[in-house]
Amino acid sequence: MVKFQKRTIKRRYKNKERNYNRYLIEFPVKLNQKIEPHKTKNFDDAEITTKDTPTQEVVNISLVRNKTPKEPDKQKTP
């Protein structure tokens, strides 16, 4: 079972206290092996799509990360 959580964080900014919402997703332990290779990567965007049927509700969350292109090795000319 995957859980969604919402936490409200209080921060002071310009002598005023402001509340910010932070959303978290908790995955079950059995998915650790699938998540471990990606834990150090920072994702730029998330795309969320939903599909509702009479028996199921499906939520697809796609994490998007732009890969930086590798620079080609500069060849020295004699």
List keywords for this structure.
49% strand; two-stranded antiparallel sheet; mainly beta; 78 residues; single chain; 5% helix; extended; 1 helix
Set down the secondary structure blueprint.
Layout: E1 3-13, E2 16-26, H1 32-35, E3 45-52, E4 57-64
Antiparallel strand pairs: 1-2, 3-4
Question: Outline of this structure?
Answer:
The chain is mainly beta and 78 residues long.
Tell me what you see in this structure.
There is one protein chain. This protein is mostly beta strands and 78 residues long. It has one domain. Helices cover 5% and strands 49% of the residues. The strands form two sheets. A two-stranded antiparallel ribbon has the order 1-2. It has a two-stranded antiparallel sheet with strand order 3-4. A hairpin with a 2-residue loop joins strand 1 (3-13) and strand 2. The relative contact order is 0.16.
User: Could you name the ranges where pLDDT drops below 50 across 5 or more consecutive residues?
Assistant: none
Distance between the termini: 62 Å
Please give the largest β-sheet.
2 strands, antiparallel
Given helix and strand content, the structural type is mainly beta
What is the count of DSSP helices, taking H or I runs of 4+ residues? 1
- Tell me the number of strands: 4
Percent helix: under 10%
What Rg, in angstroms, do the CA atoms define?
20 Å
Count of the domains = 1
Name the overall outline: extended
Q: Give the averaged pLDDT, no decimals.
A: 86
Strand content: over 45%
